[in-house]
Amino acid sequence: MSRLHVHPEIHLVERIGWLRAAVLGANDGIVSTASLIVGVAAAAAKPSDILIAGIAGLVAGAMSMAAGEYVSVSSQSDTERADLARETKELAENPAFERKELAETYVKRGVEPDLALKVADQLMAKDALGAHARDELGISEFTTARPVQAALTSAATFGVGAALPLMMIFISPAQWLIPSVSIASLIFLALLGAVGAKVGGADILRATARVTFWGALAMALTAGIGKLFGTVV
After folding, report:
1. Residue 126 lies in a domain
2. Measured over all CA atoms, what is the biggest interatomic distance in the chain, rounded to whole angstroms?
């Protein structure tokens, strides 16, 4: 009897949970902290005030990212649990209907009706809830919501991202702080976009251009506001 030989594959979708949170956290850390530093510096603040503002932005931003991600992903997780609970109840009360419903899902994907029923029977015999969750509800082990993972990843990567422009306060002369932070942050954003695209299998040029554009826009706006209010005060 011949054996089916398979080779291991690494699917990029397996990374979607932590990758999204990591890229979002690091991007927000760089953009928000760099914009804050540039805005405060443009208002002619003292270096010590700029440093305090940057550190406060790092801590507050990391906590905000963690809380926001946890609440958001928890809502998704609650919805998934509710859907699974309803599906479990329906499987217990009306398995015949659920069998036809699952088969219809395969028919819509191009499987012949008779074969679709056989597939539904075999999958439901092994794991009825898993089959319905995956093929009817679109819930799988790769894409399921993980609130704690998302919160910790976002907070950690935000802190790392925020530390990069914050570091420029220590190594850049005061008179060159704004251009130094701006240029360094755009370089950091470009690298982040490239790395995120590479890990996620996306177009590197497009991802890099996207994050650098929005980062440059944010810093330009905050610099203008800081300059305006600094002049007025």
Report:
1. yes
2. 85
| Amino acid identity for residue 54 in this structure | G
**Domain containing residue 135:** 12-232
At which residue do the structure tokens 């679709």 appear?
116
What is the count of structural domains for the chain? 1
Produce one character per residue of 188-214: b if its CB has 16 or more CB atoms within 10 Å, e if not. bbbbbbebbbeebeeeeeebbeebbee
- Mean pLDDT over 57-72 rounds to 90
Work out the percent of the chain whose per-residue pLDDT is above 90: 16
* Weakest-pLDDT range from 32-41, 99-108, 131-140, 215-224: 131-140
Residue 138 domain-assigned (yes or no): yes
Which amino acid makes up residue 121? D
In a domain, 56, yes or no: yes
* CB of 155 closer than 8 Å to CB of 25: yes
At 2 the pLDDT is 45
Is 95 part of any domain? yes
Distance set, CA 15 to CA 115, 130, 144, 157, 195 (Å): 33, 21, 11, 15, 13
